[in-house]
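Might I ask for a little of your time on a matter of protein folding? Here, with my thanks, is the record as I have it:
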Amino acid sequence: MKRKILASVSFFIVLGMSALGAQSSTLEDLGFAPGREGFRREANGIVFIVNPNPQITPMNIGVLGQLLRTVESFELIQTETVTVTLREADSTAAVRIRALSLGEDEVNGVPLLPEGLIFRFQDAPYYDFSMVVDSLRLRLRGQYFSEEELVAKMGRVLVSPTEYLLSQDSEYVFRLMQEIASQNTILQADLQEAVATLQASLSQNEFDLAQAKEELRILRDGLILFNTRGVFGSWNDFDRQVADRLVAWRSENPTATRKEAEDWLKAQSLEASGKLVQAILVAYFNQIE
């Protein structure tokens, strides 16, 4: 572990030009062979590719050599391929992941990284890539220090994507949340008006009871769907059976809080996000916490 930490730390130390030249001076020195797609090297199950027409400088050779050692030392990130573009000022490396577990629940992180990991090298290595969580495309940027630090950050983003988004662009998200809250208020008012109309119609025998219940259910489903939209307006369907069981339980426990409802769902091994639980309580019981 000490050896791995030292390798990660040395990755962003600016090396002297003479030290770089003393180790390697060409791609062939690093084990690369020319081919149709550029220069290729395969070691420890990882394929390294340097794109055609690389700009070979002592600094780039040194950075590339350290990149090889760093990627091959990864323990948490299982790498498939590394594609490198060498330029004089801003070289980049695209790392395609074979396997990666994030968070305490060991969630598969590969589908969350559609472009893999992107590193940029200037005076030090930086990561700059996107994670897709709950239909949100989140950009992760920062200076690379170690594999453990980067994987831990991705785990935190997975657990709280909205919180991460707020920390990156709070003004934009605040305006968006205000707009959604305003629309939500209008929709709830429309729902209450529709419910009152339906109830009046029932008392006057203008609608069949089954039809009225179905229309009410559709309105409630619409409110639930609206209140569980993603931050950028994406629609997420929900499990009606879970919703029906929660409504039946809440009807028998009229003083239950949202937290108690979430605990009951967990005890029944039923999956429902906190946002969905709140939306159901609002739609069926006008319970706002």
About this structure: Residues 198 and 212 are 6 Å apart (CA to CA). The first helix runs from residue 2 to 10. Confidence is low (pLDDT under 50) at residues 1-22.
